[in-house]
């Protein structure tokens, strides 16, 4: 973190503390209601292989990426479940799993890391892939690619994946709390916009299929 960002962070912290002291804490952290996509692609026959795409998201856009991956993976007659990972309790019965998360403060959402920990025994026996959606990649440079892939270092230590994808995400100020908006606009100067590259996501999902199913 450079000096300028550090000073902004101090200013933001003071501003937030003042707001909290004035009783505005609840308002500042109020999270707008978000729809989290879930769907099921039924495969061509009862014997078709089952893939789970489980994701963690805060503002909903990573769920849309997961759903698009599910549609791509399901196009060849596979059965694919796309679920918010908070709703997944059992992963037995899947022949492969894709786990994805948005990035918050340089890390996967904690529930996503927990999911990999909880299901480590099963995930380490079947092909598993990871993906990340983040704003680091709104400028797609080799350095930012390396940084975005490094967000998955901690889960790689739990289960080594068959593949990893890192993609630019979406920033919608209307879907985050006032406090988060304050941080991303005043401290990190993150631009608003939808930077998802659907062609890149589709190419990754198409290349992933043989890695997951052998
Ligand atoms: C409070 C907050 C913190 C974020 N921190 C990071 C970060 O450290 N690095 C990054 O690349 N993106 C960061 N992002 C961007 C999100 O990862 C990105 O917008 C993502 O696509 C959001 O996915 P979602 O809509 O599924 O929550 C942050 C977003 C918010 C709102």
Q: Which features does this protein show?
A:
globular, alpha/beta, binds flavin mononucleotide, Rossmann fold, 9 helices, two-stranded antiparallel sheet, 9 strands, 214 residues
Explain what this protein looks like in three dimensions.
The structure is a single chain. With 214 residues, the protein is of the alpha/beta class. The protein has a single domain (36-171, 193-213), classed as Flavodoxin domain (Rossmann fold, 3-Layer(aba) Sandwich). The protein is 42% helix and 21% strand. It contains 9 helices and 9 strands. It has helices at residues 3-21, 25-28, 61-74, 110-118, 120-123, 142-150, 153-156, 178-187, 198-213; strands at residues 39-41, 50-56, 79-84, 96-104, 107-108, 128-134, 163-168, 170-171, 193-194. β2, α3 (61-74) and β3 form a beta-alpha-beta unit. The site of flavin mononucleotide has 22 residues, from α3, β4, β6, β8 and α8. Flavin mononucleotide is lined by residues 57-62, 102-106, 133-136, 169-171, 176, 180, 183-184.
Summarize the SSE layout with pairings.
Layout lengths: L2 H19 L3 H4 L10 E3 L8 E7 L4 H14 L4 E6 L11 E9 L2 E2 L1 H9 L1 H4 L4 E7 L7 H9 L2 H4 L6 E6 L1 E2 L6 H10 L5 E2 L3 H16 L1
Parallel strand pairs: 2-3, 2-4, 4-6, 6-7
Antiparallel strand pairs: 1-3, 4-5, 8-9
Helix pairs in contact: 1-8, 3-9
Flavin mononucleotide binds next to helix 3, strand 4, strand 6, strand 8 and helix 8.
């Amino acid at each position: 973190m450079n000096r300028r960002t550090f000073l902004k962070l101090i200013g933001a912290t003071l501003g937030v503390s003042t707001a909290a002291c004035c009783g505005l804490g609840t308002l500042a952290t109020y999270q707008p209601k978000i729809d989290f996509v879930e769907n099921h692609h039924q495969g061509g026959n009862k014997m078709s292989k089952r893939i789970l795409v489980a994701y963690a998201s805060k503002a909903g856009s990573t769920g849309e990426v997961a759903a698009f991956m599910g549609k791509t993976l399901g196009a060849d007659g596979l059965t694919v479940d796309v679920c918010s990972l908070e709703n997944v309790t059992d992963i037995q019965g899947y022949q492969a799993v894709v786990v994805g998360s948005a990035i918050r403060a340089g890390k996967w959402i904690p529930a996503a890391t927990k999911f990999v920990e909880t299901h480590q025994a099963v995930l380490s026996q079947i092909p598993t892939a990871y993906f990340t959606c983040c704003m680091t990649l709104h400028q797609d440079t080799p350095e930012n690619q390396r940084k975005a892939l490094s967000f998955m270092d901690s889960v790689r230590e739990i289960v080594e994946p068959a593949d990893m994808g890192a993609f630019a995400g979406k920033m919608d100020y209307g879907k985050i709390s006032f406090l988060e908006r304050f941080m991303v606009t005043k401290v990190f100067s993150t631009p608003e916009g939808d930077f998802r590259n659907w062609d890149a996501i589709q190419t990754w999902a198409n290349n992933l299929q043989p890695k997951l199913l052998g």
